[in-house]
Amino acid sequence: MREVKFGLQIAKKRVEMLAGRDIILVVNRGRNKIEKLRGHIDEVHEGIFTLKENEGKVNSFSYNDVLTKSVRFFPPDAF
């Protein structure tokens, strides 16, 4: 149990460091459904964080998504 909690804390710190920066999120929704979202991390909460896309749409993700690599972060000029 400790390793998971420790991993969640690291994931949260990583997201907090990226807050406010322009990034690309690559989201694996399962069954070969992969999305690339451009925007910035708008809010960081205890269990989730939100990404505000350039078009104004807001998506929320959990830190568990970061740990399982369902959500990956890339710099804005990566693609």
Structure in words:
It is a single chain. The protein has two helices and five strands, in the order αββββαβ. A hairpin with a 5-residue loop joins strand 1 and strand 2. The protein has a five-stranded antiparallel beta sheet. With 79 residues, the chain is an alpha+beta fold. The mean pLDDT is 91. The longest helix has 17 residues, at 2-18. The protein is globular and about 30 Å long.
What are the SSEs and their pairings?
Layout: H1 2-18, E1 22-28, E2 34-44, E3 48-53, E4 58-62, H2 63-67, E5 71-74
Antiparallel strand pairs: 1-2, 1-5, 2-3, 3-4
Q: TL;DR of this structure?
A:
The chain is α+β, with helices and mostly antiparallel strands. It is built from two helices and five strands, in the order H-E-E-E-E-H-E. The N and C termini lie far apart (37 Å).
